[in-house]
Every structure is written in structure tokens, then in C-alpha cells.
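Example (one chain per record):
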Amino acid sequence: MNNAHTLIYSQSKNRSIFNILDSLAVTVEVTEDPYELPLDHFFGMAARKNKKRGFLFVSKILGKHIPVAPVTSLLSGALLAMRYLETVHDHPIEGRKAAVEALLSGSRQEEIYQSLMDDPFPLAEETLFIGFAETATALGHSVFDLFNNAHYLHTTREQIVGLQSSIEFEEEHSHATEQACYGNKELLQKDGPIVLVDDEITTGKTALNIIESIHAAYPRREYVVLSLLDWRSEANKEAYAKLEAKLGIRIRTATLLAGMIKVDGNPVDTEGYYEYTNSDAAVETEIHSINLSEYENFKQIDDVEYVSISSEGHVNKVPYSGMTGRFNGISSTDRPSIDDYAFHVGVGLKQTRSGGKTLCLGTGEFMYLPMKIASYMGKDVFYQSTTRSPIHRIDKEGYAVTSGFDFVNPDDSAITNYFYNIPYKSYQDIYLFLERKVTEVRLESLLEKIKQVGAERLFVVTVNSQQKGESHAD
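Predicted structure:
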């Protein structure tokens, strides 16, 4: 291997070999690329701190580990929705070419995306879309957005006092394997198709786990698995066929890019303490707080008044937002209200910007609503989210995660979270979005790390800041 960082060091039309820090070599053989999207537009590669799988496809369009224009991520979900229509419903999409060109070029993205949102496709059968936490919560929501006669919910790692998960399954290759689904049982009891949405499928075992769990309690005829990337081997695909035969069901799949991967080498073991190598004099960051629940003109769907409990026993009684689909689910009929909320908040926050380059930072599973708000905040706005994914941070050209910081999760002090790829002094304004208010002490670790990136101003934007029954004066 001839490089000390991640580069494609061997490439043909359908086959590429990625060198990851001279430790791992990942061979990617593309077998399906229906929209002719180049690999380097989809992802970069990084070393992952996980012995089960020591590498990570770092998406360039999801808005998770790499900042993107918010509409880019929304449009990628729309393209996956188009692929679903073409593959599962055999429905040709007139605007597909324009959408692909917009995603690749970066031009006309807002126009193309809005035209798709204005004309959602009416599904013949009532369909439930389920996004996987944490990375695909926004992707699943943006796929669902293009349909009528549909519902959406997403899985979660939140633990709720007195509430039992409707579905339980494991994401076996993940660093945090246990997931739950607190969806309204009335949605699950319907017999229409369920569409599972994930950013990437490697073996497909997570999808099979959740299908078995769903089918045991809420049987139906058909399941669909959607993903941006699908790396299942022939043996993995055979496992799908075996489950179909076992349960008497149909499982269909659709993806934007499919192929097979081969991994040689060993996971990267160690990493030094990360700090910016090119930072100059420290910037004194101004911190401002914006509590959206105090503004009567920002009307949202009714809150979800569940009480969460962290792994160390901390209880938070502030309600969750009803606009995420995490709990009771949302319907196609809720879409206008959610979009109206995001528009008014986005326009309001736009007025607080300094006018320079701006980053909107979602937190964990709370991805879609901040992304949607960011899409209305004007030009030169980028979006990404914090994450649970532990990734090796190496400041090398061609490597996908060149900077990043770890911090204590404000909702659970026993869990380490991260944010990546924010170059020093690259943004004038940063907007940190929280779904629920937490104490200053619990937020301190995250704020201290964000201050190190050298932004002039940091806005902490909280959607819900009050417990039920509290007044603004409390």
C-alpha cells in the first residue's frame, strides 16, 4: 500500500480498493448504480473504533459526520423515495434526471426538492415507513415526505419510564446494539407494507432482525428494505430468501448503490489525543440561548409527554417533540404542519445570523427537524449532527474524518458522543439544536468542545424547554 491515509489506490469501472491508514484495505465491487452516481459523491472512508467492523463508509450526503447543505441531504432521501417507486411500484419518475443532476451539481437543489414536496405520490396501500436510529432518522423521514397515505416512525435508543417497546431488535455490528421502537401499536397492527429505511446495509441482518420481531407480533404480507448503500453478499441475500420462505412473506429491496465488499487487514487499535494542529489565538465564543417553546408563533404538533431515564438513572420530564416520529408516529397529514413550523423557525433564526458561514448541528437521533429548519435559514448554511459513532480522527488528505471531539452526552453522562469534521474557525455562527432542555451542568461538556472550534457565536436552540404545567415565569 502506497499511502498513509485513505485513498482509492486501485480503480476500474466497477471495482475500487480503498486503503485505510495502511491497516485495512476495503475492496468495493459495484453491481448496481441505477442513477450513475460516482462513488466519491456517496462516501469517504475512515477507520472505526469497533472490532466487529473496523471501517466506516462516511456518507457525504447524509449530514451526519460530514457537513452538507441541508437540502442536499433532504434531496438524497427524495432520490431513495424515487428508487422505491421505480423498484417496488414500477412507477417511472418524470423528474428523476433533474433530481440526480441537482444532487451532483449542487445547483437548483432547493427548486427541485420543493417541486417534489409539492406533489407527493399517493400510495395505493397505507404504508408505514420506519427509519433506523440514529443515522437514518432523517433519511427515513425525508423518504416518507414524498408520499401520501403514509406514516413514519423511527427506532430509538431512548429508555422511557413505564413504556414497553412495541418492537425490540439488535443492530449487531454497531457499538450500541440495542434498539427499541415505541411506535403507536395501532400503526403496527395495520396490514399494509412496512418500509424499513437505513443509510447502509452491510449484511442485512439488522433488517432481518426487525422483520422477525415485527412479524411475530404484527404479521403482514410485505416488507421493503431501502438503503443508500447495499453491500450484501450472495449468502446475505439468500438469508432474505430463507426468511421469506420461513414466514411466508415477501421482502423487497431498493438502493441507490449496490455491490459487494471484501476487507483485508486489521482494525486500527490506537489514536492519539486530538487537537487542532493549525489553531491560532483562541476565539472567545459568544453563547446565546433560544427556547422555541416560548414563541407562540412557532406552533408545533402536540408534544409527546414521556419521561426518559438515562443509564445512570437521570430522569428528564421535559416532553419530546411530536414532530419527529420517534414515538406515536406521524402521518402524511402532519407534513404541512411540520414544514410550516420549520419554515417559520428557520426564517426567524435567519434574522439572528451574522451573515457569515453557518453550521446547524443536530444532536443524536434529533436530525430531521434541525435539518429542515436549516434549509430555511438562507445561503451558506451547512448541516450535520452529533453521533455515537467512535471514529479515528486523522488529519490526513483523503481521509474522511480529519477532525473531531468527544463529549459527554447531555442526556446520558455514561455515553460518549462525538462531532466531526469542523475545521478550526470555519464558521462564524453555530446553531446547536436540542429537542429537550437539559441542565447547564449536563450541557457543559458539549458546549466546551464546540467553543474549541473557533466560531464567533454559538446559539443553543431548544425546541421544548418546559415540563407540562410550567409557566414561562417558572
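Caption: The longest strand covers residues 250-265.
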